[in-house]
């Protein structure tokens, strides 16, 4: 007998829609991800004769892995962590360059560590500097915010919390709680996702698969994520300890200060340095282990490092809260040095990453690779920029809320103001780029008009109809311009960010202050850039918060955010443990176990049918099978981004060699795509039978016909089952997979209402969800 296993795309689907039957039952799985069948097919294996002439259809529904409930909307805050994790997987393919590959992974992990420190430092800037140090230390500011009155040192009888050290110690609860929340979220998702055992005997032969996705331990990152979680949690707590203890230690080192506190402060600083070294050692010591499932857990390290950092923070809080007569809070805490060091470190890491990526690309050139192998460094730059926008945005907005006129407090560090001031310049560059892309799209549309007329030669011409079809084709082609957009954004962000860092360090004042003595138009431009940048960075942060709040309450908005995570969280957490969890570490083992156990139990063969992101999961599951099991599987992909997106942006894992090997190892593979599809495309496999069918015609009919009395829609990325070619290819795959089995009969109007599985429901579900 034969089984057709359907895997839907992003945006979700229902088993009833995928199987085109209102009566479905769960065969295996849980409320998060499960396999469903029609109620009439549940016991199909017990009656093989009844299913000899048609395949049994199953639907694997995995949408709840990414967009199941409202708490996932909070993952928007983790967006920079998700983006830097993507950079790890974008390395170029370079077989044999093991040391260079490891160096690439190390640089990405260090970049991810700086983002954790940046986020916690931003929380320290808000809670410790703006609130506890500046506002609570000023009578005018506490007069406006009476809830801070118990921290104010003004008046004849200051409260117990009024000394600066105690104010800082109390405010440290906020960044420490943020670090604890990140640890909790990572630990909870780690137990649910990274702990799914793969189907493997523990052995691995490099000759079996040319891609790491075929290795037994690829989808089992339990040990690495636990190590990184311990290191990043410790780094966050050490950042809080440094923010609390440094001002007190600096006061104790003044001439005539108490010797005991001076010695204690130096001991704490030395212990803090030792903790930083330990964190760096854990991050640098080991990366991913993929050749076999690494079930060993470094329990002492995983528990000891965060607990040690927490103990150091507790001692530092007690030290800072000690009574120090004569200590007052004036000016700002030294945040410029901290944020400047972080910006400089991130810039150097990105540049080093670009050099390593270039060396890897030269060792194994791939003409289809995005940005000639520099996609990873560019995406890492964008991750750092996102972290800067979020940290600067929250600092700017809190400072404006406390004192928008800056009459009573100095506000956030100067560097954050400089960074906000360059945002209008970055946006101007992007506007110019978008104008260029719009011009190219218009030219492409004009060229496509001829192609559309050639595709429908016997139809009466309608300029409006032709224009709509040509526009859809031209807009779909813009996906291939994404590398240019990312490259321009990354380069402009890096250069302007470097200029902001130099300006802040050399002038020591805001852009408007640095412009004193210059012509009036220069000062006006600086003031405009500073005001507009501050407004934009605050707006960006508010959009994150508002979008997350709306998604928490609105199911449709939650589905939209779920689509973002479907694309961005396919890859395991290799660079940052606080990134949203990788749903494929649950979905791929699910599919692999189902395929292997069913084929072993029945001796049958299986068609793995995947739409959009489902085709990526299907390919990943096929790579995890043994060669013998893989030979019993046929692939049917449609609207697939396997080569167009994954092959270009992740060449080490979905490059030409990997896709060609998959084609050779599965029984057969066919791929469908349309010129109007902005996501799916050909897989471009060379050698052997062609995988790609000629591009499907979209729309199916140009004008009204007897078969299409109403205007046929432009389908784009959805409803591939509407094309008769879908049923034709499916029938051919089943006939090839079962040469002795009669071809399955299709009802009249093939694919119109009873197409195969996802062909009926998943396409409509994706269209409703707005994918693409």
How would you sum up this structure, described in words?
This protein is mainly alpha-helical. Strand 2 and strand 3 form a beta hairpin. The model is unreliable at 202-208 and 740-772 (pLDDT under 50). Helix 4 (98-135) packs across helix 8, helix 12 packs across helix 18 and helix 13 (414-421) packs across helix 18. It contains 27 helices and 7 strands. Among the domains are: 2-62 and 583-769, Rossmann fold (3-Layer(aba) Sandwich); 157-328.
Keywords:
772 residues; mainly alpha; Rossmann fold; seven-stranded mixed beta sheet; 58% helix; globular; disordered C terminus
Short characterization:
Residues 761-772 have a biased composition (Low complexity). The protein is mainly alpha-helical and 772 residues long.
